[in-house]
Amino acid sequence: xxxxxxxxxxxxxxxxxxxxxxxxxxxxxxxxxxxxxxxxxxxxxxxxxxxxxxxxxxxxxxxxxxxxxxxxxxxxxxxxxxxxxxxxxxxxxxxxxxxxxxxxxxxxxxxxxxxxxxxxxxxxxxxxxxxxxxxxxxxxxxxxxxxxxxxxxxxxxxxxxxxxxxxxxxxxxxxxxxx
Amino acid sequence: xxxxxxxxxxxxxxxxxxxxxxxxxxxxxxxxxxxxxxxxxxxxxxxxxxxxxxxxxxxxxxxxxxxxxxxxxxxxxxxxxxxxxxxxxxxxxxxxxxxxxxxxxxxxxxxxxxxxxxxxxxxxxxxxxxxxxxxxxxxxxxxxxxxxxxxxxxxxxxxxxxxxxxxxxxxxxxxxxxx
Lengths: 179, 179
Prior knowledge:
By secondary structure, chain A is mostly helical. Chain A has helices spanning 14-41, 64-92, 98-130, 145-177; strands spanning 44-50, 55-59.
């Protein structure tokens, strides 16, 4: 097989470098998604006043989009932890192809799921902050200030996870082209 | 270069088949995303009653998430139309590598953007249908029934686009492994 002018550079040992980078990027993505899943899942705020019948308490599962966010980022965290095994396999076996294609597909699906969870939660956080007077949905962040802050903060980790997964997909492509 | 046991099958002309499939999947994705962008952007409903000061009218840009959805799916549609040129190049030049990696990266970014727009819009559609009595956001679909139906329907096309893009990313990986 001749190296054409469009080829990136073909020394297979370079794949070991990519595999090691892949492993560390996965670790960063795990920390980001796991932290944001935990931060969202443990968020609740009880207001200091209450009526006879009702305590004012906000929890993440009051809003279905936040529940979806917690489920999605938990699934992606679990997948990323399991995928470390294949990542280590790639450090040892630089020529593996089928397992790289499998990982490319699963990374893409995981990125889609994590992005869907993050975007749905962001849409609701935006509404909680600003409300929408066209349809009479009021901001809840004046009352549930701490709840809103924590919920907004927990999105950062999952967006970091999305960025890591995009880089991982790109690295898989480069590694596949260099066998 | 010897074909190892992990390799999928190596005849380069097979890449032409993948490139042709790639082209047609892109066409389907363009139809889906473009249709849903247009369907969402042209949605509006004016209620048959009005007070002295206010006409009750719902448009997509009353809700920021719907605006984001229209912008995101328009950008992805435009990108997919432009990417047809590279897709045709791949049918002609089955061995291209760098342009495949570029397309893999851009497809991944486009998939993330489209998924973010769709998920944000879905979160708001869900709220419009069901409301949320924990935070006093009321359903608006009883009044704006046609608006809600059309908005919900327009999401289908963009999710079809997401699925097409995931398959395109997988095909890129397979094509890269088979040079």
